Amino acid sequence: MSNSNLFLYIGKPVRNEYGKLIAKVASFGLTPSGKFESVYLESGDGQFTKHPMENLRFNGAEVIFITKIKSQASVLSDHIPLIWRKDEALKDLLDKKRITSDVFQTLHASFTNVLTQLKKDAQVIIDESTIEIERCKEEINSLSYAIANLEIEHEIGKVDEQTYQTAFQLLQDTLRRATSERTDYELTKSKISSVLLGDSQDTMQKPKTFAEQVNVAATKLPEPPVVVYVKEVGKTGI
Q1: pLDDT band at 137 (very low <50, low <70, confident <90, very high)
Q2: Are residues 128 and 208 both part of a single domain?
Q3: Is 118 contained in some domain?
Q4: Whole-angstrom Cα distance, residue 196 to residue 194?
């Protein structure tokens, strides 16, 4: 996408992967050579935040924000197994006497240092994912109570049918989004934990991309729950 086209996105709404409106594009940061380096977003409360360009996806007229947790998890899920494999290959080369001991020690130390830092970064992702999972759980719990209260007020006649249907659909859509978000964070935490601990032999033999890992894990999970309330025919009170 050309630089001039990117500037056309200034003022456009920004949504997360689940469709929630979170901000709008305020401006861009460029390098001296003219390369887009960062984006400035304005949230609903008027605050401005700066983010790397890789956190944004431009899909036609839509601007989608990819959270730092997911973007970093994608990188770590690929890099950690790759460094492991390189270090193992290095040990094999030493055993086969195809490299000297000095070369092995230098490269092995380099791989070890990189892997140590990657593991620290992975632990940060796990901790942040845990926080986000709890936040989603609290939101889902609050939405469930909101739906229950809406049902009660509608049942006793304080909320008319049209208002009820509009509010109910809004709450259900938000509940689905929160449930999907929680599932994604749980998958992210699970896959990073697995990679960090080196539990999967397949990962050691042939690293999968983050997208492939999520797709495999998703097939083992049930569909996100959706709260549906069915009213009993003929019931006029509580």
Answers
A1: very high
A2: yes
A3: yes
A4: 5
Q: Do 55 and 102 belong to one domain?
A: no
Do 42 and 108 have their domain in common?
no
Domain encompassing residue 51: 7-66
What is the identity of the amino acid at 83? I
Closest CA to 168 of 88, 226, 127: 226
pLDDT digit string, tens, across residues 160-172: 999 999 999 999 9
φ, ψ at 21 (rounded to 5°): -75, 125
* DSSP assignment letter at 135: H
Distance of alpha carbon 213 from alpha carbon 14, whole angstroms? 27
The whole-angstrom separation of Cα 129 and Cα 137 is 12
The tokens describing 5, both together, are 């086209």
Are both 86 and 32 inside the same structural domain?
no
Is residue 161 one of the residues assigned to a domain? yes
